Amino acid sequence: MADATVTNDIDHAGAAHESIVAREAAHFGAMASEWWDPRGSSAMLHRLNPVRLRYIREQADRHFDLDPASFTPLAGKTALDVGCGAGLLAEPLKRLGAALTAIDAAAENIAVAREHAQAAGLAIDYRAGGVEAVAGERFDLVTCLEVIEHVADPAAFVIGLAGALADGGLLIMSTPNRTPVSRLAMITLAEGTGRIPRGTHDWDRFITPEELGEMLAAAGLKAIDTRGIAFSPTSGFSLSDSLTLNYLVTATR
Fold first, then answer.
1. Strands 236-240 and 99-104: what pairing?
2. 10 in helix, strand or coil?
3. Per its UniProt record, what SUPFAM superfamilies does this chain match (predicted)?
């Protein structure tokens, strides 16, 4: 995917979204209609979402000294979900009380996300585009889960995420690790058996924790927590000390 073609998508302000890879956006946009089907092409994301939310809540509670018993702990906070798909993570973040903006490279995903949020009575500022869609804006919480392995230039993308982070804010990312385990589990098995749509991942573009840590540092951020995500056929996804399959990173300025 190093040779992937970058779109020349232009937002309403006329800025090119150079972070977007055209074929990646097309791949995920083709899945838009099934995004909210827990048995559809995004079934793995549905199973992964509770673990991601648990981690986000834990990190946000600690960093912002929130009330762990509150149902809306992010009230008064601004949040940005980058690579939101059709809103699987964005809607729970909104329900946690955040003033939420969410962006995705595929316009098809944004259309489905807007319709689903409207039906649920959730006011979310959905925008089609890359991280460039929020240039000049700052957010208390920025989430970017399972996205960096799909962008044109990961290091430049992290700089864009850092630019969207307010002083004192929190950035939370997740991505597959580039290990033999992730190749076997995510590509050979998951894509090979159709549990994940074929062509979703390119193992060569997976990023190790060390590489992501260097990108964060170059963007003026510091990783303060790294946690693995493990998978068991019997119990599903869980937080883990092992980073061999997939991992979450929390960073601050």
1. unpaired
2. strand
3. S-adenosyl-L-methionine-dependent methyltransferases (SSF53335)
Superfamily of 22-252 according to CATH:
Vaccinia Virus protein VP39 (3.40.50.150)
> What distance, in Å, lies between the first and last C-alpha atoms of the chain?
30
The secondary structure of residue 6, as a DSSP letter, is: B
Nearest-angstrom CA–CA distance, 51 and 73:
18
Whole-angstrom Cα distance, residue 119 to residue 58?
29
The full set of domain ranges for the chain reads 22-252
Per-residue pLDDT tens over the stretch 117-135? 999 999 999 999 999 999 9
Distance, in Å, from the CA atom of 23 to the CA atom of 6, rounded to the nearest integer, reads: 8
Tokens representing residue 203 in the block: 């193992």
Q: What is the pLDDT of residue 127?
A: 98
| Cβ 111 vs Cβ 85: under 8 Å | no
Yes or no: say if 143 and 80 are a contact pair by the CB < 8 Å rule.
Answer: yes
* 122 backbone dihedrals φ, ψ, rounded to 5°: -110, 125
Residue pLDDT, tens place only, 185-207? 999 998 999 889 999 999 999 99
pTM (2 d.p.): 0.91
DSSP string, 63-75: HHT--TT-S-TTT
Q: State both tokens at 129.
A: 């585009």
